[in-house]
């Protein structure tokens, strides 16, 4: 998992799974401490597992309790499918995809 920052945006690349959850959790909470609204860009995430999604959901809830906000951007089909199957789609804010003409 490669994590880079671009202002309030965290860009995640690679497979988002149990092996990288400590790294992702740390990056999310550190970034939320610095920015009131953080965007986690998952455009380049190839696969995701339930443990990693739970990290995102918990960070979202924690941010809301502290008056901050976490938005997921660029959720591909695999990420969206897991969010729906796990019902975590109800907990996280997923940025809507722009309409195509």
From TrEMBL:
Protein name: Anti-anti-sigma factor
Residue ranges annotated for the STAS domain, each copy included: 1-101
Taxonomic superkingdom: Bacteria
Organism the protein comes from: Nocardioides marinus
Annotated CDD domains: STAS_anti-anti-sigma_factors (cd07043)
InterPro entries: MlaB-like_STAS, MlaB_ABC_Transporter, STAS_dom, STAS_dom_sf
Signal peptide: none
Pfam families reported in the protein's UniProt record: STAS_2
């Amino acid at each position: 998992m490669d994590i880079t920052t671009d202002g309030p945006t965290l860009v995640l690349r690679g497979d988002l799974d149990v092996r990288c959850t400590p790294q992702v959790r740390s990056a999310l909470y550190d970034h939320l401490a610095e920015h009131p609204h953080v965007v986690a860009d998952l455009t380049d995430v190839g696969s995701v597992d339930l443990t990693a999604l739970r990290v995102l959901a918990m960070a979202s809830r924690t941010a809301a309790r502290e008056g901050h906000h976490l938005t997921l951007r660029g959720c591909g089909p695999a990420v969206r499918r897991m969010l729906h199957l796990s019902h975590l789609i109800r907990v996280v804010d997923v940025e809507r995809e722009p309409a195509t003409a």
